[in-house]
Design brief:
Number of domains: 1
Number of strands: 3
Number of helices: 1
Largest sheet: 3 strands, antiparallel
Strand content: 25-35%
Shape: globular
Distance between the termini: 18 Å
Strand order of the largest sheet: 1-2-3
Helix content: 10-25%
Order of helices and strands: EEEH
């Protein structure tokens, strides 16, 4: 479980904004739970964390 987006960042490199998003990795599946309220913040944090959007289950 990786918190991607929250209003209180656990990592100073991450951007914050109102909302929540986390990445769940389990038994070879990668699921994005929620996307927060601001897509540029979500995508910036994913890049910072090394998360490739193409690896997320659709």
């Amino acid at each position: 479980l990786t918190i991607v987006y929250d209003n209180n960042a656990y990592d100073p490199r991450l951007k914050t904004a109102w909302g929540f998003s986390c990445l769940i990795e389990y038994r070879g599946q990668v699921i994005l739970f929620d996307t927060g309220g601001d897509s540029p913040t979500l995508l910036a944090n994913m890049a910072t964390l090394g998360i490739d959007p193409s690896e997320i289950e659709t």
